[in-house]
């Protein structure tokens, strides 16, 4: 009897050793991570706090500055600051930021850069927003990034951004985040009266022009628009025309939460791509000793609309900052070529979240090459219009394996999906770039889902990458 059990067991072991791919044998990162659970918890509490404070690239930049300054970073003002060991940050128009720890070697000898975007899909307010319909005051909006429009109806929205006036005032707007603040809601129709709408297509449950939240309902003798504008003027001291020079957005007024009985997941708005931008900032801020190669974090704006504008990854901000550092280090010997050499010798991780296998829609992924939550950070292959060189992927694999950081790969199902990142804009500068990230569920939704252990392992990888 005993012998028979042994033979059967041997047979089973033999089968699993020879009968499946090495990838099928990969296990959840949670298995064997018992001794890391405390650190994972602490890291993710801080991550949730960051997510709760950040709404757009504007608030992300100001939160990033807080994190950096509390870790001893100073704003760059003068070339004399560029010394080995210096911790500096460079701000571009309050919407993009570069933070760096200057290495013991010259920038031309190489650098380690992590780039991520810190804008997220949202709904922007148009230049002439206010209008009345059926006694309500509403705001005309235009959505930003690739959203599924129906998801934005009937959830609490908050208003965030800035208004700039002709007399030079800059007014910060944040309304709806505090528990006693009012919120804004895009009103869907009841199932009792929506028969004519029921055949709308999945992508057109709401039209773009229907994404207008209600912003007022109590009229004065002069009507609901005048009364609503009175409230706005009382709050911000602006006139209706000031909306022309404003960047105001509606984002979900839903705080980040743990998800699942085991609290293994984080549900929150804006994890694309603040999961990566926070991990990069934290990893840089946590470096305590000297680095050989200059360690840099670059957070960019406008990724969700093509990295446009002077604060997006297509701007020359990064190249100019490389030139600033290279020039300060080479002084009289500086020429354009020093910057080019510094760019040529940079190793860049373009960090962005990626789509995970969804347990309800398995067929949308090609499961052999799709990423799963809780199975490690993703090395992304065959992203739209950009892919890393194989020797760089090998180098990153070694970094990950040598430090026992779980990882997987991610590729989209052919002819079924796709997504770009900012990596291509840096490879255009002849930098060596690889796309890395972590998988999330419900990407671009009002409540994206990530795995705490993946976020933690991305932070660990960034720490290793800088050293
Ligand atoms: Mn992204
Ligand atoms: Mn995105």
Structural commentary:
With 467 residues, the protein is α/β, with parallel strands linked by helices. It folds into 2 domains: 26-120 and 269-466, Zn peptidases (Aminopeptidase, 3-Layer(aba) Sandwich), CATH 3.40.630; 122-252, Aminopeptidase i, Domain 2. It is built from 10 helices and 20 strands. The strands form 4 sheets. A 9-stranded mixed sheet has the order 1-2-3-13-4-14-18-16-17, sandwiched between helices. Strand 2 (87-92) and strand 3 (96-101) form a beta hairpin. The N and C termini lie far apart (56 Å). Residues 1-16 have low confidence and may be disordered.
Any key phrases for this structure?
single chain, 467 residues, alpha/beta, Aminopeptidase, Aminopeptidase i, Domain 2, 2 domains, nine-stranded mixed beta sheet, six-stranded antiparallel beta sheet, 20 strands, 28% helix, 23% strand, disordered N terminus, binds manganese (II) ion
Q: Count the helices. How many? A: 10
Task: Characterize the largest beta sheet: strand count, sense, and whether it forms a barrel.
Answer: 9 strands, mixed
Radius of gyration: 25 Å
Q: Give the low-confidence spans.
A: 1-16
SSE order in H/E notation? HHHEEEEEEEEEHEEEHEHHEEEHEHEEEH
How much helicity do the residues have?
25-40%
First-to-last CA distance = 56 Å
Query: Order of strands in the sheet with the most strands?
Result: 1-2-3-13-4-14-18-16-17
């Amino acid at each position: 009897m005993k012998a028979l059990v042994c033979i059967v067991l041997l047979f089973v072991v033999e089968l699993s050793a020879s009968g499946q791919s090495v990838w099928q044998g990969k296990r959840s990162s949670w298995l064997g991570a018992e001794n890391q659970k405390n650190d994972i918890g602490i890291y993710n509490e801080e991550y949730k706090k960051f997510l709760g404070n950040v709404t757009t690239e504007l608030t992300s930049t100001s939160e990033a500055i807080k994190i950096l300054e509390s870790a001893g970073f100073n704003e760059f003002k003068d070339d004399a600051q560029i010394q080995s060991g210096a911790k500096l940050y460079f701000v571009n128009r309050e919407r993009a930021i570069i933070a760096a720890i200057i290495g013991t070697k010259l920038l031309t000898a190489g650098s380690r850069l992590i780039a991520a975007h810190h804008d997220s899909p949202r709904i922007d307010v148009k230049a002439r927003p206010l209008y009345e319909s059926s006694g309500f005051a509403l705001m005309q909006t235009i959505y930003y990034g690739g959203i599924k429009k129906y998801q934005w109806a009937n959830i609490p929205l908050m208003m965030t951004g800035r208004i700039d006036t002709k007399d030079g005032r800059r007014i910060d707007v944040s309304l709806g985040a505090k528990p006693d603040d009012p919120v804004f809601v895009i009103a869907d129709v009841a199932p009792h009266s929506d028969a004519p709408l029921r055949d709308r297509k999945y992508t057109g449950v709401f039209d773009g022009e229907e994404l207008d939240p209600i912003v007022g309902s109590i009229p004065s003798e002069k009507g609901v628009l005048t009364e609503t504008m009175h409230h706005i003027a009382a709050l911000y001291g602006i006139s209706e025309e000031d909306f022309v020079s404003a960047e105001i957005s509606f984002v979900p007024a839903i705080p980040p939460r743990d998800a699942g009985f085991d609290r293994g997941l984080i549900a929150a708005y804006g994890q694309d791509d603040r999961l990566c931008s926070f991990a990069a900032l934290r990893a840089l801020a946590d470096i305590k000793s000297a680095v050989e190669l200059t360690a840099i974090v670059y957070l960019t704006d406008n990724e969700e609309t093509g990295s446009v504008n002077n604060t997006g990854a297509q701007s020359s901000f990064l190249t100019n900052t490389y030139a600033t550092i290279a020039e300060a280090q080479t002084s009289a010997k500086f020429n354009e070529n020093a910057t080019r050499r510094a760019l040529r010798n940079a190793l860049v991780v373009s960090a962005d979240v990626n789509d995970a296998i969804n347990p309800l829609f398995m067929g949308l992924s090609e499961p052999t090459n799709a990423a799963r939550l809780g199975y490690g950070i993703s090395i992304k292959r065959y992203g739209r219009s950009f892919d890393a060189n194989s020797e760089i992927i090998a180098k990153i694999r070694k970094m990950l394996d040598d430090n026992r950081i779980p990882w997987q790969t991610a590729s989209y199902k052919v002819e079924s999906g796709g997504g770009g990142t900012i990596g291509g804009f840096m490879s255009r500068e002849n930098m060596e770039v690889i796309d890395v990230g972590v998988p999330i569920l419900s990407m671009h939704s009002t409540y994206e889902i990530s795995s705490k252990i993946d976020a933690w392992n991305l932070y660990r990888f960034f720490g290793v990458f800088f050293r």
